[in-house]
Specification:
Elements: H1 2-28
Length: 42
Amino acid sequence: MMRLLEKPLKLASAEKAVAFWLETAKEDGIPIPEPKGRLMYA
């Protein structure tokens, strides 16, 4: 049962990290690269 809960928690943590990085990059004037589409291997 615990493994079923791990993936959503890890995904939420990753999303928070990305959001924090984007916010910090904008504040610091760091250029944010454009998405290149979906990853072929993920």
